[in-house]
Amino acid sequence: FNFRRISLADIVAKLKMIVKDEKLNVDDKTLDIIARSSTGSMRDAESALDQIIAYCGKDITSQSVREVLGIIKEEVFFEFLKAIIKNDTLKGIEIVNRTSDLGEDASQFIKNLMEYVHNLSLAKVCQKEILNLKGIFTEDRERLLKQSKTIKLEKLFDIINYLTEAERKMRYTRHPWVLLEMLVIKFTAGENYSLKEVGKEKDKYFLDFSTKKDVSISGKKNAETREEVPLKKKIQAKTKSKEGSSIKAKESPVNVELMQAWPTILDRIKKTKMAVYSFIIANNLITIENNKLIIGFNKEYTFHKESLEKQNNKILLQDLIKEETGRYLAIECIINDNSKEGSFLEVEQENKKKATKTRNGETKERAGEEKDNMLIKESLNLFEGTITEEK
């Protein structure tokens, strides 16, 4: 049975009560660190506080909390991403080796790095709004915002996906730090993985969909401006060649309503929960089948697919869709494999064709039956006969 996660604010409030009863000297920032490390579990938060008290006594500092819980300083991840952005392979590997020599845990490094990259992606999307956004824990929001402007959103997604895969592989390897060294090499020296910006080119990997009027429901621009978005070649070619890549008004009333309401829904999600917004805009198509909203992702965006599939995120999207359109839609997230790309885009059109074909067949069948009945009736009148059942 999966228990509901407790909010960060509730955990901090409970820890403050314990601190007051035990007469401990600890600031709110330190309590935030303890609460975040518990990942929504009050029991884990209280257990961590007990360990910290045993180690530190009555006076608890953020540094001592990091030492007990194995949390790595944010400065390390700032320098790590800085090395990757500048394609400085040696600097990146040096940071990995130095952290390893200090006795830090590799899995904790990946966990904290993933959280930092996640915050960086939100800063990239929100820009100055990140300064007041709740739910983001960082030592320096101004620095986070400044660094977010030096890296493309698409590349942050790539790093998140690599870290997700590395976290899974780490359970089965005796050399976990090698995976982090490979991350540095892959994103600084690997072919097609350089993250270095060219001049001051505008980041084209993100568009504020909620403010655009020429947006299809999949979150991509319409055909007139599609060339401005650097999509992958295969997906771009498929999008241009198929009418069904976005939901058309003539296909279904449900589709029309959702297409019209989609920018508003995205805007509300962005204001309510920015993380869910960043997951949704990573899709490569959206379609509707039998009152089910299907959201497709490339294989590289498995992390975004799995995150959006979490029950609380799906419920949030369903509730907003219902409020804006008055309809309830089930949510299904899938991997949009290139080999099957577009196969479900024409689902509704195929269903319409089948329905039309069925109706035509039924019409012909009824016409044939009526014709047969007329012949039988005329024969009975001609020969003055009656119809009897054969026993």
UniProtKB/TrEMBL annotation:
Record EC number: 2.7.7.7
Composition bias type Basic and acidic residues, residue spans: 349-371
One MF term in the entry's GO annotations: DNA binding
Domain called DNA polymerase III subunit tau-like C-terminal: residue spans: 254-337
Pfam families given in the database record: DNA_pol3_gamma3, DNAX_ATPase_lid, DnaX_C
Transmembrane segments annotated in the record for this chain: none
One GO term describing the cellular component: DNA polymerase III complex
Catalyzed reactions: DNA(n) + a 2'-deoxyribonucleoside 5'-triphosphate = DNA(n+1) + diphosphate
DNA polymerase III gamma subunit domain: residues covered: 60-188
Spans annotated as Disordered: 347-371
Keywords carried by this UniProt record: ATP-binding, DNA replication, DNA-directed DNA polymerase, Metal-binding, Nucleotide-binding, Nucleotidyltransferase, Transferase, Zinc
Enzyme class: transferase
Statement: the UniProt record of this protein carries the keyword Manganese: no
GO biological process: DNA-templated DNA replication
UniProt domain DNA polymerase III subunit gamma/tau helical lid: residue ranges: 11-57
Family (UniProt): Belongs to the DnaX/STICHEL family.
PANTHER family noted in UniProt: DNA POLYMERASE III SUBUNIT DELTA
Name of the protein: DNA-directed DNA polymerase
